[in-house]
Write a structure and sequence with these properties.
This protein is an alpha/beta fold and about 200 residues long. Helix content is about 55%, strand content about 10%.
Amino acid sequence: MPQAGRDGDWKMMIVLARALKNGKMTRSVKISKVPHIVLIGPMGSGKSRVGRLLARRTRLPFVDTDQLIEEICGMKIPQFFTEFGETEFRRVEHLAVLDACKGPAGIIATGGGVVETPSNLRELRSKGVVFYLDVPVRILAERLRGDTKRPLLKGKNHEEVLRQILMRRSPLYRKAHYSIRSGVLSPYETVSRILDLYDRCIKG
């Protein structure tokens, strides 16, 4: 069972965010005072799982940018990759990031390659507190064993592909405000760690 919520300023931020969403406060309250919680990291790092747990714990809305992309383009991501390629996918992904960031505070889980577009990371950092879920390649490969849906893994050695991806993206992931070694934590422990750090961040 998840632990009971800790007392802290993040609770007040959540109250403010809900009030904005429900129209009980005016927009004169700056959105920057109630930043999103943003999750980045490679495929298999648990962003969606942790994001949903965070949303349940905080009662804030959950947004998965991959789901937004599918809504925008009207098709599943593997099909989009096949028909239009990665370059076009990244363009649509940027639209999804802008859409996810524009509302009151929530939990945003991103796609693994979101950091490959510099403007995405700038937007996410400016509108939220960004957490990198850092998981070793070996654990990622175990989690993704048998996965046949992800375009970048299809028909390839998963561990080798993941190693190459992390070599390229790790410096970008580490531009997050915080890195969480979530490979050695349970999802519930990861959630508690994120909320502890979020609390420190908004206290300034």
